[in-house]
Amino acid sequence: MLLIRNEKLRNAVKIAVPFIIIPSITIAGALFFDGKRHILIALAVAVLSLVLFAAGFEKKSTGTRRMVIVAVMTALCFAGRFIPFLKPVAALTIITGLYLGGEAGFLVGSLSAVLSNFYFGQGPWTAFQMLAWGLIGLFAGMLSKPLLGNRILLLLYGALAGLGYSFFMDIWTVLWYNEGFSIKLYAAALVSAIPYTMSYAVSNVLFLYLLAPPFGEKLQRIKVKYGV
């Protein structure tokens, strides 16, 4: 398990990787890489997600234990993508971020996208999905204290995360269609995607309402028992 010991370096990685490096690679891949090399971008995002995860802990044993739980949550997200219409991927990513930290949430969201797309289809959109779900988990971890203290606020975050995911993926839609960004095309994409946007928001709220209490209780027990 990779361990980043220097505190300043860890803090730099936590900022640079999710907010600068991965977004830059994702957008550059959409603009300059052809469809045959999209898997290289997804692989780079996956590796950087692991680096970000490693920056989230100080002790090797803690990181190893957390990685096991992350693997389980990723597997659940993978299975969840096979549920028709409403999918629990973002909700499980949020729950991971709340209880295991934003870096773990980012890794679950990122890996869930790239692994499940080996079945649903890889493409330049994969890196956008990895980044979108990853950021949803990361922000959940950053906002864990208020979100865990207020269930209504948590459900509201789930709804906003669904909207944000759709808005972000529409950036990919415009870049793919136009080979550059256009405000008019982006507005049109937002309007045409309203049914999908609403389904994302509704599914997040529904699954957070159903899954957050039982999953949260079990993850909290694991944290206490194994010192995660």
Automatic annotation (TrEMBL):
Pfam families: ECF-ribofla_trS (PF07155). It comes from the Bacteria. The chain crosses the membrane at residues 12-33, 39-57, 69-99, 119-140, 152-177, 183-211. GO terms for cellular component: membrane. Keywords: Membrane, Transmembrane, Transmembrane helix. This is Energy-coupling factor transport system substrate-specific component.
